[in-house]
Amino acid sequence: MCISFSKYYICMTIARLNRTKEYLKHKNYYMEKIYTMRDFADMPEANIHQSAEHFQKFINQFEKDKSYPYGFISGSAISRNMDVIDYYSGDRVPTVSFVSSNYLGLSQHQKVKDAVKDAVELYGAGTCAAPPIGGYTDIHRALEQKLARLHGKEDAILYTSGYAANIGVFQNLFNKSDLVLVDMLVHASIYDGLKNNTNTKIYGHNDMNYLEMVLKREQGKYRNLAIVVDGVFSQDGDFANLPSICMLAEKYNAMVFVDDAHGVGVIGDAGSGTTNYFGMEDKVEMVTGTLSKSLGSTGGYAAGSKKLIDYLRLYSRSNTFSASIAPPAIGGASKALDLLIEEPYIINALWENTAYLKKRLSDMGYSIGRSESPIIPLMIKDDMKSIFTARKLFERGVYVVPATYPAVKLRNSRLRVNVSALHTLEDLDYFCNTLADVDQEYDLHLCAN
User: What CATH code is carried by the domain that includes residue 424?
Assistant: First the structure.
């Protein structure tokens, strides 16, 4: 009996050492040279073909242990359960998914899908025209009015994506006579909209002391002074300090713009977003957002005063020179907005799932940062561990994406876990248990971070 137990113990120890060796092999491989996307962002001596060839070094470095995290293809509806096609093997892998921002599961709601079908029958598959030249239908207008009411604004304008909305707003409302103060963690589309177009100062995340110092110093020097934030920040999952921001804006005669892509459908009365949640609707100049997250569709928008919206309709190039959103997407988003009011239990289910998963992860000793929303950053703070962990979870049927530099700061990598109202407690438990198994099996010591 003792001999059998000893053999078993030795075999288990060897197996564990081999698994640890697998991770160390992964880590040592990357320690040879870790390429990030930053290495390929600016290569002034290379032409476009040489740049593309050089970029293959970034992809090829993952080949040895087949851990490239960004090449998966979805082989089914984007929902809590997804078939994902493995980048390397081509196999179709069934997973529990935590990657999409389909927070309420409305992209799969039967009433939303029925509304999409109705829009196809009435308006066809697409408009094939920009809004000023025939691409602006009555259902586009009706959706704009719904979005304006959602945010307590006079009017709204649609764009083909949330990215296009931020480009359209910030490229056209501000110029070199203005100063825009930007929270360092806002979405990339805001940076792109402001780039080379106006004077921009970046302040530390939710750092109200620094923000006030800059406002006080720059007051009266520019035509317009503005503050731009995300309502809910997309990587850390925390909220903008809107009450303090709006108070400072009023004190120093600045305007406030909020990108509420991750707030709508999640917080506020009937999912009406961050400005409603904080009671700041009348203090915010304009809200930009998307139809592609809680509303389960595709497209973007901006909501504000009628005069500003009228101005953007003709001067916003990403609206004027782009075919409008396809009618099926409009029909689906419009019905999704109705469901925020008609079926409020969906939002409640989202928050119940969020609270459950956060508590389980915290009780297990994992760090979830400062999240206040269904975006849960599982902090690992090591790019190689994040990539390795995501791969091993995928091999066990859990689909979650690592967020590494440059999506987040160096030494601040994490697994970005998105919770949905559609997740079951079994899904959430499976994620936690599988994470613990991978952590223990490969001696990753994720809890220590």
Answer: 3.90.1150.10
